[in-house]
Amino acid sequence: MPPVSPTRILLESSSHCQLRCPSCPTATGAIDAAIGRGFLTARNFEHLLTHNPQLREVELSNYGEILLNPELSAILEIAHRRGVIVRADNGVNLNSAPEAALEAIVRFGLRSMTCSIDGASPETYATYRVRGSFDRVIANVKRINALKALHASPYPVLLWQFVVFGHNEHELGAARARAAELGMTFHPKLSWDSSFSPVRDRARVTAELGAATREEFRDAKGTTYMSKICHQLWDSPQVNWDGRMLGCCRNFWGDFGANAFDVGVAAAANSEKMRHARRMLVGKAPARDDIPCSSCEIYHARAESSDWVERPATSFRKRARLAMRTLGRTLGRTLLGVSGGRMGPRTVAP
Are residues 229 and 250 in the same domain? Predict the structure, then answer.
């Protein structure tokens, strides 16, 4: 595999979370062995950007809640000063939001933020977002909007993410309307754990999302629901809060044996394990126990159905081969018509 040179990374700024969502690996402690509990420091962030000047964009959210990071304001100021775009698109729960952090989010131009709000009422929201407060989240959204108006800033662009369950599907319409009132884009999403509060109105959810569960989505579409995650190993590798290379945002099974704070993003993204993982994902190398992808259900689904990752160059080559075959067949039929069938089969490749 050719080396990669990512200009965008995913960087966990906090692996702590104050909520106890039933199916979340952070809440259950499943992330502890590989990811641990900690915060990205402003010092390490500055060091990372200084020694990796090619970085133009950084995603700060993943398994934890970024607003719990006590140095978030300083991290955002560093990115702003260096002209690096920062986002929180993997999601924030927005329950604990110090005024200084909200001010920094707007003043330093956090480009976009996904707010995880699985309901349109306090009771429904709290069913999954255990320890969370719907009213507090909405109040914090309104505060961000007020700060955007004060600073005449369009940022952050806010997205309302609504994970669909059986207990909240009836509030899809109300949540979409509330999101519009708050100037937020609305994005419903299938739960990764279909056993928790399974959907009841399957027809409605299928009409909304193309399937009622991720398993049904795979059967209907021929690919896994979150299969695009695998491309992160090429385009935007996940780095842990302490610098360890994790490869993708799904991985909480182990790291790839390199630290981006120590050796740099490019070297960490091109370690032997990362290169082997990319070969696994395109179907060119066998699985190995020391590669985190071997523990991932997305990889298992790919291997089972030979639904391998197609990179742009691979897709181009496939299209080129198909075009050449089509051209060959067309030319062959033309020559057969001209020669009466004598020359075509012998001189034109099928």
Answer: yes
Is residue 162 situated within a structural domain?
yes
d(CA 242, CA 260): 9
Beta strand ranges found along the chain (DSSP E) = 8-11, 57-59, 85-92, 112-116, 157-164, 185-190, 238-239, 245-247
- Could you give the CA distance from residue 151 to residue 234 in angstroms, rounded to a whole number? 36
Share of the chain above pLDDT 70, in %: 89
Which residues contact residue 170 at a Cβ distance below 8 angstroms, ignoring those fewer than 6 apart?
201
199 and 320 housed in the same domain: no
Number of domains in the chain: 2
* CATH at 133: 3.20.20.70
Residues in CB range of 53: below 8 A, 6 or more apart:
none
pLDDT given at position 329: 46
Helix (H) or strand (E) holding 37: none
Q: What is the pLDDT of residues 223-250, one digit of tens each?
A: 889 999 999 999 999 999 999 999 999 9
pLDDT digits (tens, 9 = 90+) for 4-44: 999 999 999 999 999 999 999 999 999 999 999 999 999 99
Label residue 75 exposed, middle or buried (CB < 10 Å: 0-12, 13-18, 19+): buried
* Tokens representing residue 21 in the block: 């969502």
Q: Which residues make Cβ contacts (< 8 Å) with residue 146, sequence separation at least 6?
A: none
With beta carbons less than 8 A apart as the criterion, state whether 117 and 134 touch. Answer: yes
Q: State how far the Cα of 243 lies from the Cα of 31, in Å rounded to an integer.
A: 16
Give the residue among 123, 199, 203, 207 at the shortest CA–CA distance from 163: 199
- Residue 92 has phi, psi (to 5 degrees) of -125, 150
Distance (Å, whole) CA 83 – CA 100: 21
